[in-house]
Amino acid sequence: MLVVTASPRADWLMGGYLDTFDGWEAIGWLGQACYFGRFLLQWIASERAKRIVVPEAFWWMSILGSLCATAYALVQHNLFFMAGPCINFFLFVRNLWLSRTGQPLSSRVLAPFALGVLTVAATAVFWSWDFSQPLPWTLVGGCGALLWSIRFPVQWWMAERRSYVTLPPPFFWISFVGSCLLLAYALRTGTPVFIAGMVLGPLLYGRNLALCYRKSAGPS
């Protein structure tokens, strides 16, 4: 007799996901809630100010979200989604410190530190390359993970150079493209936590880009 086994995506769509829901799934959802909530908070604050604003709570939620997301991705053996949170945790802490003190790293420390961060990011993405998927989807996931891993290093570098913590346009461009790629990859693999974490990202990043350029085009 032929037995047909449903894929994880089909199983989730048929309601089987709830049967496997456990504490680790709850941690994963908590991490995604923090990630979504931080940008929702940032977007609301920016809309009110009519410019890009980054509340301090954004970084606290980022720190908590990265811890939850790293733990969940590790348990799920999904290293594509572990590389970014694991690396960015340290940058979130640094951004929080910089926003409070306004004291950037010296040039002699900044350059080697930045090189180290980018090296770790590239290495993490390389070692997390998922060859279980067809090559086109492997490239989609890999490119998305690479962009996702470098967006906060880019933001942090610019913050250190300016001695001012913000989210510049390059950050939102990288986030927009990376989130689109990772959303496609998450839909392919059928992981509900990662789908939920990415599904509204392009809208929020696109709106922030509009705020960036509206401010730039406004009267000086």
What is the residue-averaged pLDDT?
79
The share of residues in extended strands comes to under 5%
* End-to-end separation: 74 Å
Number of strands: 0
Q: What is the domain tally?
A: 1
Shape, principal axes of CA atoms: globular
Q: Which sheet architecture does the biggest sheet show?
A: none
Supply Rg: 18 Å
What's the total helix number?
Answer: 9
Low-pLDDT segments, ≥5 res: 1-7
Order of helices and strands: HHHHHHHHH
Layout of helices and strands, plus pairs?
Blueprint: H1 8-13, H2 23-49, H3 56-76, H4 80-101, H5 107-127, H6 135-162, H7 169-189, H8 192-198, H9 201-217
Helix pairs in contact: 2-3, 2-8, 2-9, 3-4, 4-5, 4-6, 5-6, 6-7, 7-8, 7-9
Task: Tell me about this structure.
It is built from nine helices and no strands. With 220 residues, it is mainly alpha-helical. The chain has one domain (22-215). Helix 7 (169-189) packs antiparallel against helix 8.
